[in-house]
């Protein structure tokens, strides 16, 4: 008997519409595979529903803080409802990019040098002086992005010192802490890590080629602004190195079931981990479904296996 699944999507973050699209696609994939599933928002009606009629497993298709900062996962743990993906602690760690990068660095996993700067420190210490020190340490170009957030919102590549203040202001519109890291030119790739029961493995990397050079929100979700190659156009030795690095990042952060690791591959073929996502997008232009297709898998079969694993963690299904 297959588990009964609740797909959570929507929420109140800036990524609500993307989340709803992801949730509907997962819902359709599960139903096509013969799994009983329904879609629900993360609102005030959720906890009464879980108490009155708990599902066998939950798929979290919520993007932004609600789905990725570990808080909802902690509530599901309190309710005794199993879910697909990393637990609350691991999700919280991956969600905070400076913390995640610190762990990656401690494990010897390459990630670009960075500075995390809260808005209040930026103001108290003097914007001009702080930015001068950042440029002196990291040089240019730089990548500026929210310390917590996704979908490329608030992210910008800064090619010169004069452009940095505006990038910081744009970043602070989405988060109180900005992550400023050294920009590494190269091929932008994403690797999905999947564990269907025989241990985590890396699916074929997806290469991302945005027209404007930056994979921001518009490039991710506007048709025609980005070209994807699945599998990525990498040599076999580089592909193996990228896969091993992505898998190491997934394991270093203590993740399970699935994640998406975003990397830059530099001109020498060396991968650098940018960030790790615990609730990857599932839309028509999202990278995880592309990787699943490149691996000759079906989205419905993958999520059927994942919800089965989640349900089994509580002795159900």
From TrEMBL:
Entry EC number(s): 6.3.2.4
Pathway annotation: Cell wall biogenesis; peptidoglycan biosynthesis
Compartments, record wording: Cytoplasm
Pfam families attached to this UniProt entry: Dala_Dala_lig_C
GO molecular function: ATP binding; D-alanine-D-alanine ligase activity; metal ion binding
Cofactor field: Mg(2+); Mn(2+)
Binding site residues for Mg(2+) 1: 262, 275
Residue ranges the record marks as coiled coil: none
Domain ATP-grasp: 101-308
GO cellular component, one term: cytoplasm
Predominant localisation class: cytoplasm
Reactions accelerated catalytically: 2 D-alanine + ATP = D-alanyl-D-alanine + ADP + phosphate + H(+)
Keyword field contains tRNA processing: no
UniProt remark on cofactor binding: Binds 2 magnesium or manganese ions per subunit.
UniProtKB keywords: ATP-binding, Cell shape, Cell wall biogenesis/degradation, Cytoplasm, Ligase, Magnesium, Manganese, Metal-binding, Nucleotide-binding, Peptidoglycan synthesis
HAMAP family attached to this UniProt entry: Dala_Dala_lig (MF_00047)
Similarity-based family: Belongs to the D-alanine--D-alanine ligase family.
Main function: Cell wall formation.
NCBIfam families to which the protein is assigned, alphabetical: PRK01372.1
Protein name (Swiss-Prot/TrEMBL): D-alanine--D-alanine ligase
Organism the protein comes from: Natronosporangium hydrolyticum
Primary gene name: ddl
């Amino acid at each position: 008997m297959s588990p009964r699944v609740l797909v959570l999507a929507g929420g109140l973050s800036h990524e609500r519409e993307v989340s709803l699209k992801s949730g509907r696609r997962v819902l359709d994939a599960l139903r096509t595979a013969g799994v009983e599933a329904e879609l629900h928002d993360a609102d005030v009606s959720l906890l009464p529903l879980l108490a009155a009629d708990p599902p066998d497993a939950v798929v979290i298709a919520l993007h932004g803080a609600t789905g990725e900062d570990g808080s909802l996962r902690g509530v599901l743990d309190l309710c005794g409802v199993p879910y697909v993906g990393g637990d609350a602690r691991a999700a919280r760690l991956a969600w905070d990019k400076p913390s995640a990068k610190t762990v990656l660095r401690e494990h010897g996993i390459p990630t670009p040098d960075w500075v995390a700067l809260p808005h209040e420190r930026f103001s108290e210490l003097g914007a001009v002086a702080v930015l001068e020190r950042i440029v002196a340490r990291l040089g240019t170009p730089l990548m500026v992005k929210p310390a917590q957030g996704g979908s490329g919102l608030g992210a910008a590549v800064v090619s010169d010192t004069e452009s940095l203040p505006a990038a910081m202001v744009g970043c602070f519109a989405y988060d109180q802490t900005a992550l400023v890291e050294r920009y590494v030119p190269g091929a932008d790739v994403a690797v999905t890590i999947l564990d269907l029961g025989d241990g985590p493995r890396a699916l074929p990397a997806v290469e991302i080629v945005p027209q404007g050079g930056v994979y921001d929100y518009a490039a991710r979700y506007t048709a025609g602004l980005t070209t994807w190659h699945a599998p990525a156009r990498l040599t076999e030795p580089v592909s193996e190195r990228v896969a091993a690095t992505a898998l190491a990042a997934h394991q270093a952060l203590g993740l399970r079931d699935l994640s998406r690791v975003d990397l830059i591959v530099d001109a020498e073929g060396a991968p650098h981990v940018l960030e790790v996502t615990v609730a990857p997008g599932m839309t028509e232009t999202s990278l995880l479904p592309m990787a699943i297709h490149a691996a000759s898998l079906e989205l419905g079969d993958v999520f059927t296996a994942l919800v089965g694993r989640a349900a089994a963690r509580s002795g159900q299904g």
